[in-house]
Request: fold
Amino acid sequence: MSRNHVQSARRPAPAAATGALDPGAEMPGGAEPVYLELLARGASAEAYEQPVLLARAENRPPERIASLERAKLLALRVRTELEGRRRREAELSALFETAHDLAGLRDVDAVLQAIVQRARSLLGTDVAYLSLNDPARGDTYMRVTEGSVAARFQQLRLGMGEGLGGLVAQTARPYVTDDYFKDDRFQHTLTIDAGVRDEGLVAILGVPLMLGPHVIGVLFAADRRERVFEREQIALLGSFAALAAAAIDTANLLTETRSAVAGLERANEIIKDHSVVIERASDIHDRLAELVLRGGQVQDVAAAVSQVLGGTVEFTDTADTRSLETSRTEGHAVRHGDDWIAAVAAGGELLGALVLRGRPGLDPVDQRTLERAAMVTSLLLLARRSAAEAEQRVRGELLDDLLDARDREPRQLRDRAARLHADLDATHVVLAARLEGPATGAEEAAAARRRLWAAASHLATTRHGLAAARDGGTVLLLPLDPGDTAADVARRTARHLGTAVHQPVSVGASAPVADLATRPDTVAAGYAEGRRCLDALNLLGRGGDGAAAEDFGFLGLLLAGERDVAAFVTRTIGPVVAYDTRRGTELLCTLDAYFACGMSPARTKDELHVHVNTVAQRLERVARLLGADWQSPARALEIQLALRLHRLGAAPERR
Reply:
């Protein structure tokens, strides 16, 4: 029976209607009409005592009072039966809805979440959760929780045979405890008890999830106060557990079926394509030769190979590093997942890769075709590089002027940039790049720096930016695309340059800079900020990575050129601040108390002088506003700092 039905059944009758009953009045058929009216009205159980009490107060005849007593008992039995039917109707409705979800199963997690939510609602418990056994690790773990607010409880992993769940799994029978910490029927452990204590649970009911004779998990319902679970409630939770087990079994069967179908489809494609392999090989030979003779571009090679191989071929410099290095070393195309990668190299230098997508089953003839296309691509790139080197030097000179001179005439700077297809009025990011790893000698170090500068210059040319060698490394000025962040650009650049020079490259990025023609000093300031981020990466042991100040959380406040405390607070706890302001709630106050009390809801409710369920509801709201991982150590540290900075910022307003 749902909570709404329970509440409607217990709702007191209106005062006027109650007063209209006169048990002393002579009614046809005796006392029954009085109680029939109470049944029709859905009155509370207490209202059934009133006719008898009034009859006694008015000194009605004993036989009249006895008649009312008999009618009352019969009416209460009818009322109990009606309530039971309503409850069973609600339970059957919930089971039917869950079975309907299972019949149209698309997402097993969604079905399990619905089962746990409905079990919690119908049993009227504070928390419901489902654990599954992990045969690989030999323990059991939390799969779905509903109503839980304690991070340690949600991340519990239990050894087999431990806790109430272990007892259920061992015996394959339901178990219930009215007071968890006073129950010695099962094995208590420090880890489990700490998680249950953090959640504040007292009464717990667990039923097994069975697949045939095997227990695969346990479905629980729990309250934060002492409670006796009725037989009907245990049976209802067992029905939900059976549906959950069926959902998991169905999902496993669907996964196996889909995998088998996909395998058959791939085998069929290989058989159909094999008959035309030789014809494609001849065709690609003719096309590649024609491209070289008429001075074609890399995109032309990729398009020709795509057409012949029946997949999608593209030239890239950001392919999987390990597969790309294997292809360069062995001189053959290698498979990476469902793709094929062929290194484009010349004289030991890696220029990029041709990546074939859509052809996971590549035969040897087609594989050699992809390798020959990579060789032709390297020849075209070398020819294009000689023409581009002069342009790269010009780009470096313009960037040097932006870094060193602050009194250049804006129009001249714009004209020079336009000739290089760069736009100084667009928003850019300044990037400081540096090689990582020891060099065996001065000559090798100089050669590595030259390769880094060449790769950076090539990247700047393709991205309509600028690049220059500086301070033993390279500085780049790249435009910021819509939807990108400085951190995104830094990470992509680190991967790109590291792949090109076969050595880890660290990249630090500035915050976005604009108006470079009228304010060239911003380029120098951005370069300084990028170098600070570069140093921070080294200190944190993250050499070979890319980052901007925003990647370092509150440490980014120290690295940025301008420390924007308000932006850090807004980015970290802004949704909670806005919610409190809009709704007049006390989520910030609750967060302060929660962290001060060691992230324990039980101690937090004493600090705030509220019920533990109130704390749980507030923390549920915080999780929806900040994300499910808000209690992880790194996030929790940033949130606590943001709370303190918010208090400092709000202090003058309170005064």
Notes: The mean pLDDT is 78. The longest helix spans residues 231-274.
